[in-house]
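Input structure tokens:
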């Protein structure tokens, strides 16, 4: 990921998904001058939006909540058009979303709806699409990273952002889980902590060697 985007759009099903998955990368985008809009699809109860707003302030990103029903994204008939409208409004040159092979139905729906909305985009400036992982080994599955980002220098502010989610009891399993994930990804790419991604391509031009037959 050596291109520096000007405008970044991140989708997350729930109030803590974006910062726990890509808080370090978003901090790096902000340091490099990119604008970042974090779009939460749900925030229930409303107090969780307050937590997410506090986390967004630490990450220095804009935040918007679509106000959809937690646990009901699969049943949201206009989910794809809603995400498409966000893309049309913010005109990002990079999009982050859930990896859709995830045990949580809302994560599946968010990831797949983002993919379907992204497929509708046309022209020469189609944003790059990266999928992120959430709780590895529990929710995210079959995730084989194509890209890593060293987030060692952003670990502390990311931790402070995650601790804004007091309702998730961050000192019990929430933060230790994400800290372990960052260290695992760091081991894989040779740094202290990292965040990992799968880039989605429209054509398999970068993956010919991955053909199975
Ligand atoms: Zn979630």
């Amino acid at each position: 990921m050596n291109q520096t985007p000007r405008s970044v759009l991140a989708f997350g099903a729930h109030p803590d998904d974006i910062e726990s998955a890509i808080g370090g990368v978003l901090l790096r985008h902000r340091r490099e001058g990119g604008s970042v809009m974090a779009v939460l699809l749900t925030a229930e109860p409303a107090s969780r939006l307050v937590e997410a707003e506090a986390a967004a302030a630490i990450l220095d990103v804009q935040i918007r909540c679509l106000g959809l029903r937690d646990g009901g994204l699969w049943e949201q008939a206009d989910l794809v058009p809603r995400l498409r409208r966000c893309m049309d409004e913010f005109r990002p040159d990079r999009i982050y979303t859930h990896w859709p092979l995830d045990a949580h139905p809302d994560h599946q729906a968010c990831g797949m709806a983002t993919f379907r909305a992204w497929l509708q985009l046309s022209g020469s400036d189609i944003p790059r699409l990266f999928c992120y992982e959430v709780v590895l080994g529990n929710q995210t599955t079959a995730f084989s990273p194509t890209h890593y980002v060293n987030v060692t220098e952003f670990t502390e502010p990311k931790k402070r952002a995650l601790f804004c989610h007091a309702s998730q009891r961050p000192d019990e399993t929430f933060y230790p889980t994400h800290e372990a994930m960052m260290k695992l990804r760091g081991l894989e790419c040779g740094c202290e902590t990292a965040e990992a991604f799968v880039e989605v391509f429209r054509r398999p031009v970068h993956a010919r060697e991955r053909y199975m037959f």
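The pocket of zinc ion is lined by residues 13-14, 17, 104, 107, 134 (CB under 6 Å). The two ends are 29 Å apart (CA to CA).
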